[in-house]
Amino acid sequence: MNRILKILILLGLVLSQSSFSIAADPKQCPGAFAPAPPVLKPDLLALLSALEALKDTTGQGVWKTTPETKKELDQVFESKTKLEQFFQLLFLLQKHIPKNHLPLVVEPPGIIQVLLAAKVFKDPAFPQRITRVELKHDDPNRNPFYTVHFADKEVRFSINEGQGFSSWDQGMCQTATELIFYNGFSFRVRNSRVNRNLVVDDFDQVELYGQFGSRGMFTIDVHYVDLEKVEFIRGTDQGKVKARVAKREFKENKHSGVFKFIGSLIPNTSKQRIDW
Question: What mean pLDDT do residues 130-154 have?
């Protein structure tokens, strides 16, 4: 019975490892109430020009400006975070690419010019490390998925200019400071089935890095968390994030066998500020 009780307690701790919900005492966790980073306004004329010039590797155009697509493009930048704008832009492109044009591959410099004009990245160095973006179907009953290839096997992206986003949870200040992308980073983008929120899921080859864990009955430190799903809450800088302790965590840091089993098995969904 004592062993079962310990496992249940650990399970409760694991379920909160990836939670960065904003419910903090500012004295304990000052970063939790820091202002959101500014959202840069895109150069819409330059963006439209870059989109109209964007061609896939077969020479076929990817975008056509119409009153409808221009209106939808304007709506992309009503989003409150750069991260959501990035995925909203990719979703808009996906929406207007006929299925019979898939699979589709775009490469620099075209795709880089689109991202730079959209200003969805404050640091231009990150998009310049992209070597190829693919959009293809693997299942006729599901949305297509994007795959992003980089010049390096691993690309680290600082969150909020290295300050990260923090919250007080499980007796400690939890802070996500970096996104780690691996070559072949992939995901699907779709609308929620129950509201107007944008959902990005089926993530692969991406992790959150930071200081997570618990203090109290058990002291657990976790640095790597696998990102699995994000639902952007429309009109806010908040999102519902599904994540679990990453395999890399157990390769690089020592943990008990019970925590290793439960941590890699059980995901958690939390509401938090989500941006980069």
Answer: 95
Of 115-119, 189-193, 239-243, which gets the smallest average pLDDT?
A: 239-243
Measure the CA dihedral 25/26/29/33, to 10°.
110
The owner of tokens 């692969």 is 204
Amino acid at 157: F
pLDDT tens readout for residues 7-55 = 434 444 444 433 334 344 555 676 666 666 678 889 999 999 999 999 9
- Pull the structure tokens for residue 227: 């990102």
Q: 126 near 155, Cβ under 8 Å?
A: yes
Cα–Cα dist 98/135, whole Å:
11
Give me 100's structure tokens: 């019979």
CA terminus-to-terminus distance, the chain = 44
Distance CA(140)–CA(131), nearest Å, equals 27
Span of 46-60, 108-122, 167-181, 183-197 with lowest mean pLDDT: 167-181
Contact yes or no for 18/208 (Cβ under 8 A): yes
Cβ(217)–Cβ(9) under 8 Å? yes
- Distance separating alpha carbons of residues 81 and 66, to the nearest angstrom: 25
Amino acid at position 1, single letter = M
As a whole number of angstroms, the distance between CA 116 and CA 109 comes to 11
pTM here is 0.86
N residues, the chain:
276
Catalogue the E-assigned strands of 47-171. Answer: 104-106, 130-136, 145-150, 154-158, 165-169
